[in-house]
Every structure is written in C-alpha cells, then in structure tokens.
Specification:
By secondary structure, the chain is of the alpha+beta class. The chain has two domains: 198 residues, Chloramphenicol acetyltransferase-like domain (Chloramphenicol Acetyltransferase, 2-Layer Sandwich), CATH 3.30.559.10; 233 residues, Chloramphenicol Acetyltransferase. The protein is built from nine helices and 18 strands. The protein has a seven-stranded mixed β-sheet with strand order 1-11-18-17-15-12-13. Strands 2-7-8-9-4-16 form a six-stranded mixed β-sheet, with helices on one face. The chain has a three-stranded antiparallel β-sheet with strand order 3-6-5, with no helix packed on it. The longest helix is centred in the first third of the chain and has 18 residues. The chain is globular and about 60 Å long. The termini are close together. This is Omega-hydroxypalmitate O-feruloyl transferase. Belongs to the plant acyltransferase family.
C-alpha cells in the first residue's frame, strides 16, 4: 500500500544542450489594446512558471518540421492572445500591475541536445538538468525590451524526439487556461480552428466598489501596502517566499487502489456523510496530517496547522465565469486544525475539514477574498500549500505529432509547497506526491505517511 518512488539510476547532470537560434515573435500588427487590467488574484501571481512537454519521435514530424509548425502556430495565436507579446508594468497612478500590450514579442528558442530522450531516464523524477530545456531570460542572446511574458524553447534529441519548454508569467494563465492555450496551439499547428475561443475579460474578477470584505480570511496575510507598492527591502512572509534550505527530496506514489482505500476509510468515521470525497480531497487530508505532525515539535500538539489549496472559482461565481476565462480564476481555500486532532481524529474528520474548506468558496466568499486583496493585498498565508498538477491534463493535448509522453512542471524544492502530479500513464489513476523537507522532518513524514496509509 503506497510506495516510495524508487530513485532512478544516476541522473544526467548535463543534457549537452546548445542553442541554435533565438528570436522574438510579434503580432502582424500592433494590438488595439493599450493595456490589460489584472485582477487582484493576478496581481500576487507576478512570477514565472515553467512546464516541459516531452514528445517521442514521429517520422512524419521530425523536429525541424514540428518546430516550424510550433513557431508558426505561436505567431498566429498572438492575434488571439495579444497580451502575451506585451510586458508586465507597474501603473504608477493606480499602484497596480497591468499588461502593457505594446507589441514587444514573445521568445522562441531552438536548441539541440546530444542525448536521446531515453537517455534522460525517468521523466517523472524531477531532474535539475531539465532547466536546460527552458529559457528563462532572452537578454543573454538578444536585445530584448523588458522581460517577455512567454518564452518557448524547443529542444531536439538525437532520437528524433523533442521537448517543448514553456515559461510564462503566472499572471498570464492559471492551470486550466494554460491547458486551453496548449489545446489552441496544438489545433492551430495542425491547421485547425481554435479548440476554445478564450475570454480575456479580466474585469469580471475586479473588486467591488467600494470593496466589501464580508468574511474573515485567515488564509490571507494582511498587508496594508497598496498592490505593487512594496519596497525592495520589505519582507513578505507568504507561502511563495523562497528561502534556501538544505532539504531532502522524495516522491511518494499512491496507486489508484491506494486512493480508493483512502476514500473507503474516509467513509468509516462518525462525521462522514457530507458528500462523496474526491481523490484530491482524501490525498490532501492524508498529506496534511503527515506534514503537520512531521514538524519537530512533539510537545506542542495544541499547535494549529493550516493547509492551503487552490479552488477553481469559474463555476462557483454567480453568474459563473466562462469556462474559457483566460486569467487566474483560482483562490486559496484552507482548513485548520490542532495537531492533536490531526493525530487522533479519523481520516473522515480531516476529509470533512478539507471538504468544508472547498465548499466555503461560494460566490460571496470569493468576492470577499478578491475585495480583501483590494484593501490588504492578501497573500496566501498558511503552513504549506498543496499545488496540484494531477488533473490538469497537459498530457492529453493532441498535437499533430501526437500527445506528450509526459508533461510536468520544472520542479523546485520547497518545504512550504507539496506537489501532486500524475504518473507517466494518467489512465492508471494514481498520483505522485513530491515532498521536500529537512532530513529529520522527512524521516518522520515518511513514517507517518505509511503508518496512516495502512492503519
């Protein structure tokens, strides 16, 4: 029941990647949009994220042909996603970040590796050398105006397979809208119409005027600093704060059977019966217990632990947002309990707490959280965040040369973020739990993980 993901043989330390070409792609004409409004959710997500999509060789689409199709499709998509060719800027009058939609271009980089895709080994196990498959800055190779909101690097392997590494500013897309972008990229590359016409009306998530904070928001950190106005030396202790630490790193694999067993266990307790728990809910409850109790503070079971997790609010608002909404339509839900309860309560109780955290995200609660961001800025605030890539379905996108062999985030080791991501074959229904903790905490987490899984 549950397995510790077997560490692969020694990972390639150097993929021997050389850049062959780097260019900027522009709209065929200037965008009519001067600037794009960014919601209070977008405002706090002003950082870059990277994903890598691996493709096996297809004799009908050797890398040179596939790369040209990707390049042409990206250029065509800029007509639809005009803001991507813009830049993030701070509006000095409003004190808010916005997209300056001046046609400054997105990055497109062509590279080659001296290795085959098979020589990379296990793609599920994050390899630090995968950083070579993503271009994070363009000013090393080109004279670039500002920092591009999107950079795509395509890297050919000796076997004919290739990787597509995509860096975007998180303010451009959440996970759902990024998948729609990939589906549109795949469709246009295949000469088809858009898979989904995006909705760019980010004003749909604007704060109310005047803002009305109608709920307490312990999941948000109160900072009475106007958005965008924090100084360089301001210390913001939020969940995105990244301080270097010496951490152990492990992946715990849960099979579809393990998840079914957790669901069954969640129905056994006296407080169950509040709806059918999802795989995400039961895995999150299990991980929450292990993470909270792994902290080396055994004598303080009265300590409160708070788990944070993202909830898609598209269908929760009244009226609902269009499914094709492009911006960040996710808010942070939370659950809080004393460590004593996390240790002694049945799984059903913890599942109820996580479920209640998700159910709390009604239209009014979401609007209140957005308004909170208008008043206090409102960074997520808790012990740790579960970031789930499990059900996003990037592997399901059908390109002319086939679906990706695997799609994954470029992984960073953070003790305050635990990642859930799918196995190589998503149809198996299992999930990988990626954890980074100090050595003593990791040893304790591992013991708790299997103890509570089997008890």
């Amino acid at each position: 029941m549950g397995t510790l993901y077997q560490e692969p043989p020694p990972l390639l330390q150097d993929l021997k990647v050389t850049v062959q070409d780097a260019t900027l792609l522009f709209l065929p004409q200037e965008s009519e949009r001067g600037s794009m409004f960014l919601s209070n959710i977008d405002q706090v997500l002003n950082f870059d994220v990277q994903t890598i999509h691996f493709f096996t060789a297809n004799p009908n689409f050797p890398p040179k042909i596939a790369f040209k199709k990707i390049q042409n499709a990206l250029q065509k998509l800029l007509v639809t996603y005009d803001f991507l060719a813009g830049r993030m800027k701070l509006n000095q009058e409003t004190g808010r970040f916005e997209f300056d939609c001046k046609n400054s271009g997105i990055g497109f980089v062509v590279a080659r590796s001296q290795h085959t895709l098979d020589e990379l080994g296990d793609l599920v196990y994050p390899n630090p050398s995968f950083e070579q498959l993503v271009t994070k800055r363009m000013d090393d190779t080109l004279q670039v105006e500002g920092h591009p909101l999107c950079i795509v690097q395509v890297t050919a392997f000796k076997c004919g397979g290739f990787a597509m590494g995509v860096q975007t500013n998180h303010a451009t897309f959440d996970g759902i809208s990024f998948k729609h972008f990939l589906q549109n990229l795949a469709a246009v590359a295949g000469g088809k119409p858009l898979a989904m016409v995006p909705c760019h009306e980010r004003e749909l998530l604007a704060a109310r005027s005047p803002p009305r904070v109608t709920f307490p928001h312990p999941e948000l950190l109160e900072l009475k600093i106007p958005i965008g106005q924090e100084g360089e030396n301001d210390q913001i202790p939020n969940v995105f704060d990244n301080s270097p630490q010496d951490l152990d790193f492990k992946i715990f694999s849960l099979s579809e059977k393990d998840i079914s067993n957790l669901k069954a266990k969640a129905k056994e307790g006296p407080t169950s019966g509040k709806g059918k728990p999802t795989g995400f809910i039961v895995v999150s409850a299990h991980v929450w217990r292990c993470k909270a109790l792994s902290v080396n503070d055994e004598n303080n079971l009265e300590r409160l632990s708070t788990i944070l997790f993202a909830v898609d609010i598209r269908s929760r608002l009244n009226p609902p947002l269009p499914r094709s909404f492009t911006g960040n339509a996710v808010l942070t839900a939370y659950a809080t309990a004393k460590c004593k309860e996390l240790e002694e309560a049945p799984l059903s109780k913890l599942v109820d707490l996580v479920s209640e955290g998700a159910a709390r995200m009604t239209d009014e609660y979401a609007r209140s959280a957005i308004d909170w961001g208008q008043v206090y800025k409102g960074f997520p605030h808790g012990e740790f965040l579960i970031s789930s890539w499990w059900r996003l379905g990037f592997n399901e996108v059908e390109y002319p040369w086939g679906k990706p062999k695997y799609s994954c985030p470029l992984v960073y080791h953070r003790k305050d973020i635990i990642l859930l991501f799918p196995d190589m074959d998503e149809s198996n229904g299992g999930v990988n739990v990626l954890v980074a903790l100090p050595h003593k905490e990791m040893a304790k987490f591992e013991g708790l993980f299997y103890r509570f899984l089997s008890s």
